[in-house]
Amino acid sequence: IVLYEMFGWTPPQFAHLSLLINEQKQKLSKRHGDVSVTDFKEAGYLPEALINFVAFLGWNPGDEREIFSLAELEKEFSVERISKASAVFSREKLDWYNSQYIKNLSPEELLKNVKPYLVNANLTSEDTEFLLKAVSLEKDRVVTLKEIPEAIAFLFAESLDFDVELLVWKKSNKEDTKEKLQEVEKFLETLDDNDWTIEILEEKTKNWIAEKGYGVGDVLWPVRVSLSGKKNSPSPFEIANVLGKEKTLQRIETAINKI
């Protein structure tokens, strides 16, 4: 202000924002593990999510709304609503914001944003439709973009490495599991390519299971493990939709041969 006065300039109005502290009530500092904007970007946080989150540190719109675009923040923001109390930089809240923004991305936007992480993980394909489906598979489950490559790596694998015992559902056994996989493989072979969507696959497969009088878990558990090689993964219908009919049947056949 003294400099402004010395130069004969009209000083602007100054305002102090809330002090930012971490969850241990300490001032944000690299010494305490706090990171820069660049670090957050490299960790897979979307700029829009970070802006939205930071805007709410010491400010709120006066109602229950939490998701704001930059244009909406420009319109709604007012100095009068800035809190005098320190604002806590909660990683949990930032994670929530980022997950919401990821969920709202179109498949094309998501692929554009996650592609550098895929390339870094050596997960590439010339098939754009496959990539769009692959990245969308986990968009409702991940917190950051950086998590997506690891979550969907099994889709790119030439072969899956898993314990055969993982194929067996609860009180079932290897013999019954193999039989169920052989039967469901034959059933899936009868489906038309136009039926290869999540909704139709789920409807027709579950109807077939009911007609056979089989337990849902006895059939779908080994199918899901056959396609993912994992104990925890998206549904077999979601995975099959990404892999396509040919690769789905190949993975089921490979699992049958493992038993």
From TrEMBL:
<keyword id="KW-0067">ATP-binding</keyword>
<dbReference type="InterPro" id="IPR049940">
    <property type="entry name" value="GluQ/Sye"/>
</dbReference>
<feature type="domain" description="Glutamyl/glutaminyl-tRNA synthetase class Ib catalytic">
    <location>
        <begin position="1"/>
        <end position="96"/>
    </location>
</feature>
<keyword id="KW-0547">Nucleotide-binding</keyword>
<dbReference type="Pfam" id="PF00749">
    <property type="entry name" value="tRNA-synt_1c"/>
</dbReference>
<dbReference type="GO" id="GO:0005524">
    <property type="term" value="F:ATP binding"/>
</dbReference>
<dbReference type="InterPro" id="IPR020751">
    <property type="entry name" value="aa-tRNA-synth_I_codon-bd_sub2"/>
</dbReference>
<dbReference type="GO" id="GO:0006424">
    <property type="term" value="P:glutamyl-tRNA aminoacylation"/>
</dbReference>
<comment type="similarity">
    <text>Belongs to the class-I aminoacyl-tRNA synthetase family. Glutamate--tRNA ligase type 1 subfamily.</text>
</comment>
<dbReference type="InterPro" id="IPR020058">
    <property type="entry name" value="Glu/Gln-tRNA-synth_Ib_cat-dom"/>
</dbReference>
<dbReference type="GO" id="GO:0000049">
    <property type="term" value="F:tRNA binding"/>
</dbReference>
<keyword id="KW-0436">Ligase</keyword>
<keyword id="KW-0030">Aminoacyl-tRNA synthetase</keyword>
<feature type="domain" description="Aminoacyl-tRNA synthetase class I anticodon-binding">
    <location>
        <begin position="109"/>
        <end position="256"/>
    </location>
</feature>
<dbReference type="GO" id="GO:0004818">
    <property type="term" value="F:glutamate-tRNA ligase activity"/>
</dbReference>
<dbReference type="Pfam" id="PF19269">
    <property type="entry name" value="Anticodon_2"/>
</dbReference>
<dbReference type="GO" id="GO:0005829">
    <property type="term" value="C:cytosol"/>
</dbReference>
<dbReference type="InterPro" id="IPR008925">
    <property type="entry name" value="aa_tRNA-synth_I_cd-bd_sf"/>
</dbReference>
<keyword id="KW-0648">Protein biosynthesis</keyword>
<dbReference type="InterPro" id="IPR045462">
    <property type="entry name" value="aa-tRNA-synth_I_cd-bd"/>
</dbReference>
<dbReference type="InterPro" id="IPR020752">
    <property type="entry name" value="Glu-tRNA-synth_I_codon-bd_sub1"/>
</dbReference>
<dbReference type="InterPro" id="IPR014729">
    <property type="entry name" value="Rossmann-like_a/b/a_fold"/>
</dbReference>
<protein>
    <submittedName>
        <fullName>Glutamate--tRNA ligase</fullName>
    </submittedName>
</protein>
